[in-house]
């Protein structure tokens, strides 16, 4: 599906209107603000719309997505999935974005939010046709910086140890490997060990400080 180029409402580090920044949790009310649109110079994260349903159905038929998500959808189920994404935003439970590349749906990025703990868990997929173009790492970086801007302290990402591509995505987005959860998640071929990656708010400031220091003349 091809979409129009609506301008970004927030940058990768900008706070979304209606959210209040807090060191440990956030006090904002997403139901009183529109879900933000996040962009860099290549990808665009935007709220899902009902017209995305056919593309979602097609995406879940692709081998690369089937391998790790092991589900399929009808058009009706895809519309319900999109409606649930909007409901999760209103309930402060999650923020799920469609990821566009060149105006075409290229993936999905979701942050499951825990306001009480100030944490978020990332989940994503990308279409087979954009493999190797850095779409997932760019989308994860944008979503993570937005999460930090509203007061999230810790963002986690978990994936099968048999999926090294997701390790590369996490690394490129600034996540570190925290450990391995043995036989943690069921897949089509049995239970998989899962790598747990994390990104802390402190790490973002530290990396920014190192980058700034690196620009100084010596």
Automatic annotation (TrEMBL):
Superkingdom field: Bacteria
Entry-linked PROSITE patterns: GNAT
Gene Ontology molecular function: protein N-terminal-serine acetyltransferase activity; protein-N-terminal-alanine acetyltransferase activity
GO CC annotation, single: cytoplasm
Start and end residues of each N-acetyltransferase domain: 43-203
InterPro entries reported in the protein's UniProt record: Acyl_CoA_acyltransferase, GNAT_dom, Ribosomal_N-acetyltransferase
UniProt protein name: N-acetyltransferase
Organism: Brachybacterium saurashtrense
């Amino acid at each position: 599906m091809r979409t129009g180029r609506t301008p970004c409402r927030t940058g990768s580090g900008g706070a979304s209107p209606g959210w209040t920044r807090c060191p440990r949790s956030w006090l904002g009310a997403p139901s009183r603000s529109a879900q933000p649109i996040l962009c860099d110079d290549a990808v665009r994260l935007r709220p899902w719309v009902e017209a995305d349903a056919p593309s979602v159905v097609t995406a879940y038929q692709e081998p690369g997505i089937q391998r790790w998500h092991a589900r399929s959808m009808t058009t009706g189920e895809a519309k319900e999935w999109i409606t649930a994404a909007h409901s999760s935003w209103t309930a402060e439970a999650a923020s799920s974005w469609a990821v566009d590349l060149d105006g075409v749906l290229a993936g999905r990025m979701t942050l499951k939010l825990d306001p009480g703990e100030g944490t978020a868990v990332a989940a994503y997929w990308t279409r087979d046709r954009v493999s190797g173009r850095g779409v997932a790492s760019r989308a994860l970086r944008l979503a993570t910086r937005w999460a930090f801007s509203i007061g999230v302290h810790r963002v986690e990402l978990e994936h099968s140890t048999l999926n090294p591509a997701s390790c590369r995505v996490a690394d490129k987005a600034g996540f570190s490997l925290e450990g391995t959860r043995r036989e943690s998640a069921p897949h089509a071929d049995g239970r998989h060990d899962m790598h747990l990656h994390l990104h802390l708010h402190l790490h973002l400031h530290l990396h920014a400080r190192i980058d700034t220091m690196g620009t100084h003349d010596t």
